[in-house]
TrEMBL record, chain A:
SMART domains in alphabetical order: Tim44 (SM00978)
Keywords: Mitochondrion, Ribonucleoprotein, Ribosomal protein, Transit peptide
GO cellular component: mitochondrion; ribonucleoprotein complex; ribosome
Protein name, per record: Large ribosomal subunit protein mL45
Summary of the function given for this chain in its UniProt record: Component of the mitochondrial large ribosomal subunit (mt-LSU). Within the mitochondrial ribosomes, required to direct the nascent polypeptide toward the tunnel exit and position the exit at a distance from the membrane surface.
InterPro entries xrefs: mtLSU_mL45 (IPR051975), NTF2-like_dom_sf (IPR032710), Tim44-like_dom (IPR007379)
Species classification: Eukaryota, Metazoa, Chordata, Craniata, Vertebrata
Species per Swiss-Prot/TrEMBL record: Esox lucius
Pfam families per record: Tim44 (PF04280)
From TrEMBL, chain B:
CDD domains: Ribosomal_L22
One GO cellular component, as annotated: mitochondrial large ribosomal subunit
Protein name: Large ribosomal subunit protein uL22m
Pfam families cross-referenced by the UniProt entry: Ribosomal_L22
InterPro entries: Ribosomal_uL22 (IPR001063), Ribosomal_uL22_bac/org-type (IPR047867), Ribosomal_uL22_sf (IPR036394)
PANTHER family, per the entry: CHLOROPLAST 50S RIBOSOMAL PROTEIN L22-RELATED, LARGE RIBOSOMAL SUBUNIT PROTEIN UL22M
Gene3D superfamilies, per the entry: Ribosomal protein L22/L17
Subcellular location: Mitochondrion
Family: Belongs to the universal ribosomal protein uL22 family.
Source species, domain of life: Eukaryota
Record-level Gene Ontology MF annotations: structural constituent of ribosome
One example of a Gene Ontology biological process annotation: translation
Protein keywords: Mitochondrion, Ribonucleoprotein, Ribosomal protein, Transit peptide
Species annotation: Esox lucius (Northern pike)
Amino acid sequence: RHGCEGSLMMPHTLCRHHLQASLDVRFPLPFVVPVRTKKRFFVPPSTKIKAKMTASQDQEANTRAAGFVIRQEYMERSINIACTAGVFDPYIPPEGDARLSSLSREGLKQRTQQIKQGAASQLAIRKIKEHDPEFTAKSFAVKAQEIFVEAHDSLTQFNKEKLHSLVTERCYPEMVRGNRYKTLRWRFVESLEPPKVVHARCPDMVTKGNLYGQVTVRMHSRQTLAIYDRFGRLMMGSEEEPRDVLEYLVLERHLINPYGMWRLHGKIVPAWAPAKEPVVKTIMIPGPELKPGEEFEELNYEVPKPKAVQWHK
Amino acid sequence: MATSVMSRGGQITYCTYYFTCYSCRLFAFHKPQQHFIHTSVSLDVNKNWDRKNLQVFPPQQPGEAQRPAEVHHCRRQIKYSKDKMWYLAKMIRGMTIDEALTQLQFNDKKGAKIMKEVILEAQEMAVRNHNVEYKSNLYVAESFSNKGKYLKRIRYHGRGMCGVMDKVHCHYFVKLVEGPPPKVEQKTGFDQAKEYVEQLKSRTIIHSL
């Protein structure tokens, strides 16, 4: 047989080799061993633990007497944190961005404001260049768009490994949540304006030297998105109709780590963004609690609208 | 610090060996016995019914008829007899969900209350997770019960005789499908009789002229 000893506790058929087939199944069972609960009236002397405990205690005493000091063992497990928990000092996009043409007066004002980036951003970019000498704003913007497109493509195919390398751990659950049993069809049609770096910050977490770089990139593009539910029915969007999308992407990198990569960290949704398209199906919104005798129509209840606040996803 | 697995007479123990900077093996301390295996009673529970909810269908073309949403739900090891549960399961087969819930609510059996909970859970799941639009637009497509794991006890008879008393448990499964329930054609006695007569008329004698 394959070298596993059958014993009283673990019958042969349930050894690891026999269970290998079940482990290869799509939803593998845990390695579970049934324990016989038969009462034993004869307890063999080897199971008596008391003698062993005293023996080990004597041993410990001997070692301490001999002078060998063993450092205390901590039952710890180290965790590697490769990304920050949020966007630090988020970029506030100016109102009416991408709606005003450059020729009008307001458009010119916006352009001038955009051109002179904040001093903090310049400092941050300088810091990033210290750690990554090949960093330039223009090349990075193009790279950021490529990362964005690749990340969303791997999301549609649901390629977990590739997605983890393109997207930070904070962004991953937000992208993936709820989509496991749905089919996503996403296509990047074209880019309407060349992507641009608008904002950069270099926060350091916990200790002083632990630098993370966060860069915000503005992207105006055309995309199609269609979400199908578990049964192949269209839930939202359409595959043929492309939409113009203005996005502010935040990419992050652990600058100190020489093997760090720029990964998508989140998106900034401005306060003046138009409301999202509603889902195809009707949804019930919980209404006010009625007292006995009251009618809902008489209350003139208005559905509360969410406040227009900038949030970053 | 290195760990090694030793199997000694069937028991698996993990022993840790400590190395100092002199890289000589010092002492082996027995940690309190850490068994990293999970011991449980039942290994071979069939979870196929729950897995039916994880099946993803490919997107439909715009011309195709819409596939109705299906939700599978079950409850395991209900303390009730599978034969008694069958009567209730058979009763609600093919009913709309509201009709089924009202019937179960006013039924006096113990299993009715449990079944009602199961169906309400399934309805909630359907609306929340499986993109069902209207919670009343569901009907019971499949509903059945089968035997769960029985506990065995001793039943004392007269004259010092013993028997095995089974503490019965059952599983209950239900499948809700979106849409109006399919209409079952009601055959009257007259139709059945007509069919019978036609069957008799269409008989032929083989090898005849």
